[in-house]
Specification:
two-stranded antiparallel ribbon, 4 strands, TRAP transporter small permease protein
Amino acid sequence: MATPIDPKGWRGRLGAALGWVDDGLDGFERSALIAGILTMAGVSVVNVALRNLSGSSLIWANEVTQLLLVVVTFMGVGLGARQTRHIRVSAIHDLLPVSARKVLLIVTSTGTALLLLMMAGWAHGYAESTQRSCRILPESIQLGGLAVPLGTMPVAVAVALVLLAMALSGHLMARLPDLAAALQSRLPGWRRWIAGLVGLALLIAAGAWLAGSLAELVANRSGRCRVMSSIGLPVYVLHLIVPLGLLLGAMQFALAAVRNLISPDNYLSWRRRDEYLDADGEAADG
């Protein structure tokens, strides 16, 4: 059993804040992967059916599938690290005492985080090289009489805002099933079906609004742009998904290092303890 951290100390407060961020990113990444895989499968099935039945196909199917494949691949980096679904050579680790294992976990997690962060920087540099002078975001937007810069925002601030938006969206999406279950439990019979249909319609409407907003930004792009021929999406936007996914992976390994620094137990990620299953299927320290 995991040794709890004192919630009143600085370790507890830091752990609560980082745990909130990790849970939010987990919810967002899971939702992005589910939506991406389902959409990719749906587009592929419809495209194959049209090709066999009518002899024609969706002209944008290949580019949409390519886009979704990049999203699923690199959004899965953080989720794979969080669930420790990566290859880990533990021969030396298993021979060490518990305290030495903690040191080794901190060193390897920090080193892996730095490596992924460097790769994210290189990927971002490549994305910038393909951007040229292309922009899809306006220079600024008006919020309450204040001009908030978007196109000229520093990269660090933009990344922080994107991560915060992802965490907030993840918490919202993680709560939706519980809210839907609580609502349905209060409704009798046929009203549950109506509520479910209304909820589904709202989700579809929200997805259509997001897609429409993105399409409007793409249509109003400025500068010299290299775009995908069928859907018109600037290529640099596709390339920006790569450093974002690598950054999420780096954050997971950094969180693992911090968790090992503030917790008495050993952790492979923020939530996963360093443990094995014994012969009876019970968790035991690794």
